[in-house]
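=== RUN LOG ===
request id: a7f3
mode: sequence -> structure
chains: 1
length: 451
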Amino acid sequence: MKKTLSVLLALLMIISISARISADEPSSWAQEEVEAAIGEGLVPANLQANYTSSVTRGAVAQIFVNLLEKAAGKCIDDIMAEKGVAINEGAFTDTNDKAVLAANALGIINGTGSGKFSPDGTLKRAQIAAIINRVARVMGIETEGYTHEFKDITDNYSWADSELGWPVHAGVINGVGQGRFNPGGDLTTEQAILITYRALGSLKIQEEQAEIVTEGMLSALATAAINLRTSAYSYEGLVEELESQGFSHEEAVYASDNCGADWEREAKRAAVNYIEVSPFSYQGMIDKLENDDKFTHDEAEYAARSCELDSTYQVVKYAEWYLKSDWASRDKLINVLEEAKFSQDQAVYAAENCGADWNEQAKKLAEEYGTAKSISAEMLISRLENEGFTHEQAVFGVDNCGIDWNEQASKAAELLNETGHFSKEALVGMLERIGFTHTQAVYGADHCEGK
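=== RESULT ===
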């Protein structure tokens, strides 16, 4: 019995020690950043334990003061002096913590009403996001104009709606999935440390960028805004446009980084402009936006999808558009449409439904040949068949193209005579062999120049 009790007591001691060790160590996923934050001098001693427990409002006040001091490179007293504020010892009836009062004087932390701060209340996700946003404002960073897409910022947390945009944009804090932020969710100590540590990195970057902004960069930014009002640009396209307007690469990149453009929306604008001019297949539009306008594949795909391209409608329109400016047999038109990235089924559908008169198309090509070449009717029929017209369509084209075959024979005879002088009989024979009738060949031999 005594032996059993001894074993049980030993097990209880091991469990107790293990629990204390676990509480004093951050979770494995958080350990690296927690240690980095401690190394930065960001984490006060009171937060270097109980990492997985919920953290209170009073416990985190000092880390936010440390955040502001580290980011600004100044002590809290100097920051308050620059801002023209001072601690109000009577701000709250339930705490006189200097860190709380200093943060409150700077507008970083607010009370909970009725003169109370509620230091023992748990810190919520919406509250830490708002605090980070206010720290950025104290540092002179413009946080307005940034938006978020969370659907659960309502009711008791509607006040946080305008505070979330910048922290989310800066990658300081994210949602919890499915378009939710969970504004009332409690934070553990390690979560508060990680968010604050990431905020420090973002604030330092913003501060560094603010220090090197030149007049040229600001001018490029203003020009970028004008460009975007008049045309649709990709990020890379805007950089190139600004460089062509005389700005340096650094100025153009700064303007493109800070112009606030939604590149997916810009890709859609470009797609709509293209569709107003000519039809496109879904893949053809993606290729156009990627290759010509230098949008990313994801941006181009978004635009093609958002334009709701009805491929059946677009392929028929493309076929009609093509036939307005060029001839085509049914087979050639199908090939043209497939090259424009329509599927074979879509291309066949368009060829059958675009209203093309293939006889007229054959006639159009025959007329082109008759204008440019010396050719017999027989050879022209063969050429039209090689272009994909049926024999009947080719014959129709040749019979109705208005070509004077006697004149064609005369031109062919002239070309033959350029290679050597032939007797009339030899010339007639050669013309007949390339498809002219005997009557046409005799006419050509009799009427060619240089006979």
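=== NOTES ===
Residues 310-356 form one domain.
Residues 189-211 form the longest helix (23 residues).
=== END ===
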